[in-house]
């Protein structure tokens, strides 16, 4: 039985409800009158439920599809402006006791060297990341209670926050580790993590069981209920996602939105972010083995429909995607991208000469952070290194009410400009500096509140002569 408030996985992600939703969407994919009604509701910028959004995703009418993309762009512009937040993943350990068939870290893979960073190696990795200009990380580990226990993750977070090198600082550490207990989530919360991220991989239970044939991750219910335990442990910023390519995308889309509705219904706050990873080639993995790959056009439509359905939820795209794909979907709803990512353990500082052979997957976008930052500005975006909300305690529903109040332009926009100025002063190439200073000068005038505009202008001058870490 479908019950979004229930804490039982198969009730808030009810297979019957998803099948029924897909049948409803299929029956109405050319129903222009219904699609118009849904689009009208979406224009209020208050989101859609999984059934309505699934109709938009299934829609085959070209003119309505053009409207869907246009609406997504409008919502993106209204809620996020032209800011794109940047981050990098940091792989701590690739030991893993799970059997995920799409991931080369799976426990039976004998080709890849296994590695866990020491605290000294973490220091070197973090300094390499700081020297590129990164301020926000996503920690990644395989699941292995013996080689990579929670105490190691906590110690590593502590190390990362403590590293000060030149003007560098990691100001927000998000964590993408395996589903765990309420007690461990509480410890992560106390260690000061930003978002806890966990991908569902697939919401389809039968496929999930086949794709995760052994190891603790085989337990679908435990995995699917992870965010409930994270909330119970005090983490109110959680990030969800599926690995597109494993199962049918329309099923996954409905599942993702039902998960978001469940978090809203049960805890009063939806997910902080939704990630949209697609499966990539990796050591012993050929993505063509999975026959649910999606075209570029479908990928764009998924991003647009998520943007319309959950306007307040950030959307993350990684370097799994190429520069061309990233360009095409940025304005449809993406708010965060990774830059200059390395998916091996120890790959940033090159502390391990084997490290590049232990990539989790092949990245598609291999540009430097400076190139990504300049490219974003050339496309009209403002690259942002902002971490202000989390540091000011604006998490969970407090962050959501900031979004809903429309104050983002007086808050996130100024913070984006100030953190971009820091980046230009400390890390950028002369070409990026020249363009960046022009962008900052132009975009300052977009701050609606006159007093805030003046304060930010003053701070930007102060950053030019050495001051750091201002925030609104
Ligand atoms: N081990 C933890 C887990 O599985 O939840 C978290 C870290 S894992 C390194 C991060 C994510 O990488 C996984 O959730 C999975 O979706 C993704 N991934 C694994 N293999 C991949 C592949 N071949 N291509 C793209 N993404 C992949
Ligand atoms: Fe291990 Fe995560 Fe890879 Fe699965 S996806 S094998 S749990 S690292």
From TrEMBL:
One of its GO terms (molecular function) is metal ion binding. It comes from the Bacteria. Keywords: 4Fe-4S, Iron, Iron-sulfur, Metal-binding, S-adenosyl-L-methionine. The keyword Lipid biosynthesis does not apply. It holds the Pfam family BATS. Residues 275-383 form the Biotin and thiamin synthesis-associated domain. SMART domains: BATS. InterPro entries: Aldolase_TIM (IPR013785), BATS_dom (IPR010722), FeFe-hyd_mat_HydG (IPR024007), rSAM (IPR007197), rSAM_sf (IPR058240), ThiH/NoCL/HydG-like (IPR034428). CDD domains: Radical_SAM. Gene3D superfamilies: Aldolase class I. GO terms for biological process: sulfur compound biosynthetic process; water-soluble vitamin biosynthetic process. The keyword S-adenosyl-L-methionine applies. Its cofactor is [4Fe-4S] cluster. PANTHER family: 2-IMINOACETATE SYNTHASE (PTHR43583), THIAZOLE BIOSYNTHESIS PROTEIN (PTHR43583:SF2). This is Biotin and thiamin synthesis-associated domain-containing protein.
């Amino acid at each position: 039985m479908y019950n979004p408030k229930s804490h039982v996985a198969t009730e808030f992600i009810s297979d019957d409800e998803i099948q029924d939703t897909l049948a409803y969407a299929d029956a109405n994919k050319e129903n222009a009158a219904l699609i118009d009604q849904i689009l009208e509701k979406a224009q209020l910028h208050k989101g859609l439920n999984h059934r309505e959004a699934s109709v938009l995703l299934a829609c085959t009418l070209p003119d309505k599809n053009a409207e869907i993309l246009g609406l997504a762009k409008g919502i993106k512009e209204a809620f996020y402006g032209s800011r794109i937040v940047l981050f990098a993943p940091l792989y701590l350990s690739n030991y893993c006791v799970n059997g995920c068939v799409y991931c080369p870290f799976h426990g039976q893979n004998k080709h890849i060297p296994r590695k866990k960073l020491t605290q000294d190696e973490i220091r070197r990795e973090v300094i390499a990341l700081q020297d590129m200009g990164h301020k926000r990380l996503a920690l990644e580990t395989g699941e292995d209670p013996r080689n990579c226990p929670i105490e190691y993750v906590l110690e590593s977070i502590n190390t990362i926050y403590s590293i000060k090198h030149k003007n560098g600082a990691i100001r927000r550490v998000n964590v993408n580790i395996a589903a765990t207990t309420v007690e461990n989530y509480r410890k992560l919360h106390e260690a000061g993590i930003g978002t806890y991220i966990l991908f569902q991989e697939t919401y389809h239970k039968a496929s999930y069981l086949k794709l995760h044939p052994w190891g603790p991750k085989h337990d679908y219910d435990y995995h699917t209920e992870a965010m409930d335990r994270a909330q119970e442990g005090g983490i109110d910023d959680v990030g969800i996602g599926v690995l597109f390519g494993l199962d049918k995308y329309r099923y996954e889309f409905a599942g993702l939105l039902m998960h978001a509705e469940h978090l809203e219904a049960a805890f009063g706050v939806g997910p902080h972010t939704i990630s949209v990873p697609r499966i990539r080639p990796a050591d012993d993995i050929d993505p063509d083995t999975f026959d649910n790959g999606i075209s570029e056009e479908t990928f764009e439509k998924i991003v647009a429909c998520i943007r319309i359905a959950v306007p307040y939820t950030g959307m993350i795209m990684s370097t799994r995607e190429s520069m061309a794909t990233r360009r095409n979907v940025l304005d449809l709803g993406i708010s965060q991208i990774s830059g200059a990512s390395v998916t091996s353990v120890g790959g940033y500082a090159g502390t391990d000469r084997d490290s590049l052979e232990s990539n989790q997957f092949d990245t598609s976008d291999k540009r430097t952070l400076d190139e990504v930052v300049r490219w974003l500005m050339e496309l009209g975006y403002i690259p942002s290194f902002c971490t202000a909300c989390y540091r000011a305690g604006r998490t969970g529903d407090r962050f959501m009410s900031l979004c809903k109040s429309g104050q983002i332009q007086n808050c996130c926009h100024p913070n984006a400009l100030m953190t971009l100025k820091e980046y230009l002063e400390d890390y950028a190439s002369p070409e990026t500096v020249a363009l960046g200073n022009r962008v900052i000068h132009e975009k300052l005038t977009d701050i609606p509140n006159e007093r805030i505009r003046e304060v930010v202008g003053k701070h930007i001058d102060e950053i030019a002569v050495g001051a750091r870490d201002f925030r609104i």
